[in-house]
Design a protein that fits this description.
Layout (H helix, E strand, L loop, with lengths): L11 E8 L2 E6 L3 E6 L7 H5 L2 E4 L2 E6 L1 H5 L7 E5 L7 E5 L4 E5 L5 E2 L4 H4 L6 E5 L8 E4 L1 H26 L1
Parallel strand pairs: 2-11, 5-7
Antiparallel strand pairs: 1-2, 1-8, 3-6, 4-5, 6-7, 9-10, 10-11
């Protein structure tokens, strides 16, 4: 989600982080907390369900890293604010950085990108930092939540189908 700017010369701040070999960004205003919290240190049952306990709260935690590099679990958890639903977690490889971009430095990704990679289908824009060859991809929060909705629907449909077969 790229935050609309009130003025074309207003710099926007983003949290950038690594997911496997990609650099990914979220608007800084969307990140509530950054935790050093390893998945294997949490409750195994909750982890298998894509949940993580933080204090007295349990939240949904997305592990996009697993799709790209299933060998090494990511050590950091970003707690992300969602305008449409409750906060959720996003596992990332390393301690995030803060970068700034002008709105005209961001480039929209073409719609065809979503057909080439499920991971890139979650991204909306890309940009390059000066003196850096690696692009930064901008994660679209609504696309992650849409993916979650489709996953829950397909799991629910599969469960309903299995229950009908057992009756």
């Amino acid at each position: 989600m790229v935050v609309p700017s009130s003025h074309p010369l207003d710099r926007q701040k983003f949290i950038t982080f690594s997911l496997a070999e990609y650099r990914v960004a979220l608007p800084m205003a969307s990140v509530l907390r950054i935790l050093h919290h390893r998945p294997e240190g949490s409750n195994d049952t909750l982890s298998r369900m894509g949940l993580v306990q933080i204090g007295s709260h349990v939240i949904r935690a997305f592990d996009l890293h697993r799709q790209l590099n299933p060998v090494n679990p990511p050590p950091f958890l970003l707690i992300v604010r969602s305008p449409e639903s409750e906060p959720f977690g996003l596992w990332v490889d390393g301690l995030p950085d803060i970068v700034e971009f002008l709105p005209d430095e961001l480039r929209s990704l073409p719609p065809s990108v979503s057909r080439t990679s499920p991971f890139l289908a979650l991204m909306s824009h890309t940009a390059l930092l000066p003196d850096d060859q690696d692009p930064i991809f901008f994660l679209e929060i609504s696309r992650i939540l849409g993916t979650l909705g489709r996953t829950i629907s397909s799991v629910s449909s599969a469960g309903d189908s299995a229950r009908h077969q057992l009756q």
